[in-house]
Each structure stands twice: as C-alpha cells, then as structure tokens.
Automatic annotation (TrEMBL):
<dbReference type="Pfam" id="PF00083">
    <property type="entry name" value="Sugar_tr"/>
</dbReference>
<feature type="transmembrane region" description="Helical">
    <location>
        <begin position="72"/>
        <end position="96"/>
    </location>
</feature>
<feature type="transmembrane region" description="Helical">
    <location>
        <begin position="102"/>
        <end position="120"/>
    </location>
</feature>
<dbReference type="InterPro" id="IPR050360">
    <property type="entry name" value="MFS_Sugar_Transporters"/>
</dbReference>
<dbReference type="GO" id="GO:0005351">
    <property type="term" value="F:carbohydrate:proton symporter activity"/>
</dbReference>
<comment type="similarity">
    <text>Belongs to the major facilitator superfamily. Sugar transporter (TC 2.A.1.1) family.</text>
</comment>
<dbReference type="GO" id="GO:0016020">
    <property type="term" value="C:membrane"/>
</dbReference>
<keyword id="KW-0812">Transmembrane</keyword>
<keyword id="KW-0472">Membrane</keyword>
<feature type="transmembrane region" description="Helical">
    <location>
        <begin position="417"/>
        <end position="434"/>
    </location>
</feature>
<feature type="transmembrane region" description="Helical">
    <location>
        <begin position="382"/>
        <end position="405"/>
    </location>
</feature>
<dbReference type="InterPro" id="IPR020846">
    <property type="entry name" value="MFS_dom"/>
</dbReference>
<protein>
    <submittedName>
        <fullName>General substrate transporter</fullName>
    </submittedName>
</protein>
<dbReference type="InterPro" id="IPR036259">
    <property type="entry name" value="MFS_trans_sf"/>
</dbReference>
<feature type="transmembrane region" description="Helical">
    <location>
        <begin position="287"/>
        <end position="306"/>
    </location>
</feature>
<feature type="transmembrane region" description="Helical">
    <location>
        <begin position="132"/>
        <end position="150"/>
    </location>
</feature>
<dbReference type="InterPro" id="IPR005829">
    <property type="entry name" value="Sugar_transporter_CS"/>
</dbReference>
Length: 466
C-alpha cells in the first residue's frame, strides 16, 4: 500500500500542471510580451510533449527494470521527477516549461509502467487486484488534492503560481522515503539467481504466517521461470522482440487491450472535457465539477478495489465498459435535443457521471491485466509496451477530440455517437479475448496459455499441479 501511495504524486502533478495554465500569474509569466493570453500553440505543445514523454518513459525504463531491478527503476523515476520539478521551479519562459513537461511526462509514464508491475510481483496472489487497484485510488486522490489546492490559491492569491509548484517537493520527499524502504521483488531476485535475497524478502513479508515456507515459494518461482525459458527456447521466442512472437503476441494484445479500450470508449470526452458537458448543462463552476467527478471516481475505485479479487477481472472490465458505451450513446441522443432545459441538462450530467464511474474502475483493472498476463521473464517489457501503445492512442484522441467537440466538426455533445461506435467494437473484442486471471499464480497462467485453453474459460480451468 505504501508503494501504491506513490501514485498520488502522479495524480497531484498531472492535475496541478493542468490547472496552472489558467492561473493569472502563470499566464503573465509565460505569455508573449505585450499579450495577456498564452498562445494556443504553446499550450498544445506542453500537452503534446507531456504525452510523448509518457510514451518515451514507458519504453525506455523497461531496460532498467529488467536489467537492474524494480527498486533501481523506482530510484530512476524519482530522479526524473526531481528534475522536472526543479525545472518548473525556475521556469520563466514557455520553452522552459516545455522541457519540464517532457521530464514530467517521462516520470509519469515510468510510474505507470513500473508501479503496477511492482505491486503485481510483491502482493499475495489472492490480493493482487486490491493492491494494483490501490494504485489508481491514490492517483485519483492526488488529483483531488491538487484541485483543492488550486481552488484555495485562486481565492487567496490568484497571481501566485510558484507555491503550488513548490508543494510538489513534499510529495517528492514522501516518495523518496517509501522507495528507500521498499524491498526488491522476490520474482526479480529469483530471475537473477539471487535466491537467498529472495528468501529473505519473502520471510520478512510472510514469515509470521503459520506454516509458511519461503523456500517452497522460491522453488516454485524457480520452476516457473525455468519452464518459461525452456518453452521460449523450444518455440524460438527469444531476443529483444520476444514480446511480439508466438503466444507472447496474444498475451501482449490482451495486456494492452483494456487500456486501449479506455481510449476507444471516449475517456477524453467525459474526463478531459467533462467541464464542457457540465457547462452545457448550466454549471459554470469548474471546481465544483472537478469535485463531483473526483468523488465519483473515488467511489468507483473503492468498490472496484475491494471486489476485483472476488468477482474477477473480466466481469469488472467488460460490463462497466459496456455501460460506458450505453452512456455515450445516451449523451449523443440528448445532444439531438434542447439540453438547456432542466430535465435534459440533468440527464447530461447523469450520463457523464455514469460514464466516469464505470470507466474509472475498468481502466484501473487494465493495469492488472498489463502486469499479470505477461510471462514473468517478459513482464517488464510487455507491460511497458502495452501501456505505451495505449498512450499512443490517447495522444491521437487528445488532438482529434477537441476538433470533434468544438472544432470544424462542431459535433458538441453528439460526439458521444462516435465513441459509442468505437467503444462498442472495443467491448466486443474484450468479450472474446479477456480471460479471467484473478487469484491465479504466474505458473497457472502460463499453463493455461501453453495448453491453449479457451480465453473465456480460464475461470473454470483446474491447473494440473497447483
């Protein structure tokens, strides 16, 4: 849970930097001489380079995660985030902020690809879902902290934009303490032949349980990794592109698809542009909108975290995404009428909140799929590439969605029809390819893929030796 808490830094930084763009003092500092607004191309460049930085960070850090360990990767993330905040503290021109956003994006992308992986490897099998979803819970809470801080500052000191930047050092400091005390994951230690260290970590975490045998767990890990390596050699699935070879390609697609679906069901519509829908419904207070949506997300995450290990990953991914599609279809239908009327404006808010609620939980489980589905020996690489591909889709929609809503298309609320279509296709694919892996060990998951068990029947399968 301490490791998951680090995600609050990610949520805090993303919301903080997004909100600073509208701060009067920030505008005065970053706008071109003689103007009172920041040029749109600058704002677009900041958002674009941060998203690009996420992809770069996700792809590059995998080599550290694989070669030097999960704990060293967390130190690298911390250094990158420190650099980003340092640049922000001294930024006086728009291009200084551009460089800061590159490093911030890299740090956020690294966190996204490393922390769920770390949580999957450090957590007990029967509680993986809880702890991986705790990552998103803390992320949402961090966003809420940033929104509250910016709102209070807007009231008390509307031209002060440095104080919010400085406040990030508190989050950085807490993360440093957490990263120092976190142990390396036993799975990584066993994969590198550091068996005594792995046994020591397992004993420290689980040694008080009656009848627990850390040596037995180390032996099981060794057996799983040896079996994966033997299968890889037999099927010629070796080398830097092994992620995209043979059965690993299928596992990569499954690992990536829930997070890609998040984009195809219109996350940018009801998340990034949620304020737009609320304003259309007559609400002119952006902070109240943020507060409402954050509460909706927190409720969704609490319900998802406590139920995913009991109900399973598959139903809590497929069905909520289907609800999102229906919500988007309803938004499009409402957009065909005069939604300035009280009854329809209330429906607009209801469907936007419903879409946010259903997608938040399903999207969080996407991290579980990204971390649990890959082979242990390819876990870091597969997770990184899966999230990077999802982020590339997000970059595409971050540019096209504004054009749909307020650009040349002028679809407005009817944009819901477009994402209802793409989302329906994505959900149908989810139905056919997403297996149930809740409370399954890596060895069990490997066995089911090797035996080519029907993906929709993973839940009913009884492993041979476990």
């Amino acid at each position: 849970m301490a490791a998951a808490f680090s995600a609050s830094l990610e949520g805090y930084q993303i919301n903080l930097n997004g909100g600073l763009v509208s701060n009067k003092g920030f505008i005065r500092q970053m706008a071109s001489p003689g103007t009172k607004i920041i040029k749109g191309k600058y704002v677009s460049a900041w958002g674009g380079i941060q998203s690009a930085g996420q992809t770069i960070g996700q792809i590059l850090l995998q080599y550290v995660t694989d070669g030097f360990g999960r704990k060293i990767a967390l130190y690298v993330i911390w250094v990158v985030l420190v650099v980003s905040v340092l640049i922000e503290c001294f930024a006086t021109h728009w291009y200084h902020w551009l460089v800061a956003k590159l490093f911030a994006g890299m740090g956020v992308g690294m966190l996204q690809s490393t922390l769920p992986l770390y949580l999957a490897e450090i957590s007990p099998t029967q509680l993986k879902g809880l702890f991986i979803n705790a990552y998103t819970f803390w992320f949402v809470l961090g966003q809420l902290f940033a929104s509250v801080a910016l709102n209070r500052l807007h009231i008390s000191a509307p031209y002060d934009f440095r104080t919010p930047i400085y406040s990030q050092w508190a989050m950085i400091g807490v993360s440093a303490i957490i990263f120092v005390f976190l142990p390396e994951t036993p799975w990584y230690l066993v994969s590198k032949g550091k068996l005594d260290q792995a046994k020591k970590v397992l004993t420290k975490m689980h040694g008080r349980k009656q009848g627990y045998d850390s040596q037995e767990q180390v032996d099981l890990m060794m057996s799983t990794i040896a079996s994966e390596r033997a299968a890889a050699e037999q099927n010629s699935e070796l080398g830097p592109w092994a992620v995209f070879q043979g059965k690993n390609l299928l596992r990569f697609i499954i690992a990536a698809w829930p997070k890609i679906t998040q984009q195809l069901v219109g996350l940018t519509v009801f998340n990034t542009y949620a304020t737009y829908f609320f304003q259309k419904a007559g609400n002119k207070d952006p902070f109240l909108v943020t507060l409402i949506l954050s509460c909706v997300q927190l409720i969704s995450m609490i319900m998802t975290a406590v139920s995913t290990d009991k109900l399973g990953r598959r139903p809590l991914t497929v069905y909520p995404y289907a609800i999102t599609v229906l919500s988007l279809l309803s938004l499009g239908i409402v957009g065909c009428f005069d939604y300035s009327k009280p009854a329809l404006s209330s429906l607009l808010i209801f469907f936007a909140c419903l879409a946010t609620f259903s997608t938040t939980g399903a999207s969080a489980i996407g991290y579980a799929y990204a971390a649990e589905i890959p082979q242990q020996r390819l876990r870091a690489r597969t997770t990184a590439f899966a999230l990077a591909f999802s982020n590339m889709v997000a970059i595409m929609f971050s540019f096209t969605t504004p054009l749909m809503i307020n650009g040349d298309a002028q679809w407005g609320v009817k944009t819901g029809f477009f994402f209802a279509g793409t989302g329906a296709v994505a959900v149908v694919i989810c139905w056919f390819i997403l297996p149930e892996v809740a409370c399954r060990t890596p060895a069990e998951i490997d066995e089911m893929f090797e035996k080519k068990i029907n993906l929709r029947k993973f839940k009913q399968y009884s492993p041979s030796n476990y």
